[in-house]
Amino acid sequence: MAYKSWEDDHSASPALKLAMAGVLVVGAAALVFSWYTYQHQQTLVQAERDARLAQVANLRSQVDALKSKDVSLNGKLQAVATKQHDLAPLARRVLKSVFTVHTDVGLGTGFVGWTDGDSTYVITARHVVEGNLGGYVTLSRAGGGSWSGAIAGKDAKNDLAVIRLDGHPAGAAPLWQKPDRKPPEQGDELLLVGSPYGLEGTVTTGVVSRVTKKLIQTDAAANPGNSGGPALDKSGHVLGVLVSGILGSGLSFAVPIARVCESLRSC
Predict the structure, then answer these.
(1) Chunked in runs of 10, what are the mean pLDDT values of the chain (267 residues)?
(2) Catalytic positions
(3) What is the 3 state secondary structure string of the chain?
């Protein structure tokens, strides 16, 4: 008689084996899916990291560009400051040729335009000498000295006048001996010299704001007493004669120097 072991009685049936195989397949699939999900997430993280690094590099490039522009701007500002500093020798030279014009009713400014023989001709604004009772005015300058001058001519149309001195004040070189001057352009630098409120030898700078046939507009500061003073370029050439300004507005006006040739000088 044959006997069966306990194990033979309890061996796994085909259905159980199939179920166990399904569990193993599902577990393997879950592991594969988890691995895929992890790898996908790692790819997304790496892509995000690369994008952020690219943004940082771009920002650094922009910062470097701004720094470069800042250096360039500082260089330009330094050049402007140097140019302004270079006006100091010009101002010292021109001051010797600029006078305060004293009249019976007030004062203004004048400058040596040209010389002819033993005479020195000082250009000023007509309204500076218009109210004078006599034909003579007194001139003085920051370096000292006093001279008597005769009013040699007036031009009401252009608000200009000429004063003649006998002799040549020491160091007062003519600023407009050669009358051929081209008109300035907008943006050109200007130097104004005069006696605002009687403060002899005052120098201010600015630029040409506007140019017309009759007037040169500038933002250089001017006050009562500056009228008749020269407006010069950075090379020391006279561009115009200051005739008016609007207090507190930053607007000053000069008559183009060439208009002296209309009736006061043979050019």
Answers:
(1) 46 70 73 72 72 76 67 52 66 95 95 97 97 92 93 97 97 92 89 95 95 94 94 94 81 95 94
(2) 127, 159, 227
(3) CCCCCHHHHCCCCHHHHHHHHHHHHHHHHHHHHHHHHHHHHHHHHHHHHHHHHHHHHHHHHHHHHHHHHHHHHHHHHHHHHHHHHCHHHHHHHHHCCEEEEECCCCEEEEEEEEEECCEEEEEEEHHHHCCCCCCEEEEECCCCCEEEEEEEEEECCCCEEEEEEECCCCCCCCCCCCCCCCCCCCCCEEEEEECHHHCCCEEEEEEEEEECCCCEEECCCCCCCCCCCEEECCCCCEEEEEEEEECCCCEEEEEEHHHHHHCCCCC
